[in-house]
Amino acid sequence: MRRVSRLERNASEYDIQGLPMEQSAVLNWTHFNSDMVATELNYESVTAIVNSNKSKRVDLRHYMIESPYVCFTTDKVQKILDIFRFMQLRQMCVINPIDGKLKGVISREDLFAYMKL
Q1: Strands 91-95 and 102-107: what pairing?
Q2: What span, in angstroms and rounded, lies between the C-alpha atoms of 66 and 85?
C-alpha cells in the first residue's frame, strides 16, 4: 500500500486540466442572475439558457472554498467535534488518508444525530 503525500492529496484543488481556460468556452454565472438582488429566474428562462449553451461549462470556482477543512476517516469524533465547534463549520469533507479520495461529507446535522441532542 502506497501512502499519498499531502501535496498529492490536495492535488485536485490545483488541477485545472480539462477546465475551459478560454472565455468562449465558459458560461458566465451572470446568465443565471437577473439583477443585483439575485432574483430567481423562471424555469423557462433557465431552460433556454442551458439549451443554447450545451457545449459550455459554468465556472463555479468563484463560489468554492479554495482550502476547505477536511478530516480523515481515521480521525476521532472528538477531534471532528472540536473543529466544527471552533471553526463554526456547517460541513466538512471526509478524506481517505491512503489515497486522498473523498469518502463523504459530515454535516452539523450528522453530528447532532450522533450526539443525540
Answers
A1: antiparallel
A2: 21
Tell me which long-range contacts 29-38 makes (C-beta under 8 A, separation of at least 24).
Answer: 29/58, 29/59, 29/60, 29/62, 29/63, 32/58
3-state DSSP assignment of residue 104: strand
Q: State pTM to two decimals.
A: 0.52
The neighbour count for residue 84, using CB atoms within 10 Å, is 20
| Contact criterion met (CB below 8 Å) for 9 and 95 | yes
Specify whether the CB–CB gap between 88 and 76 falls below 8 A: no
Mean pLDDT of 53-61: 79
Counts for the chain of helices (H) and strands (E), in that order? 5, 5
- List the beta bridge partners of residue 72: 95
Q: What domains can be seen in the chain, in order of their start residue?
A: 20-63 (no CATH), 65-115 (3.10.580.10)
Q: What is the pLDDT of residues 101-116, one digit of tens each?
A: 999 999 999 988 887 7
**Residue 41 · residue 29 · CB < 8 Å:** no
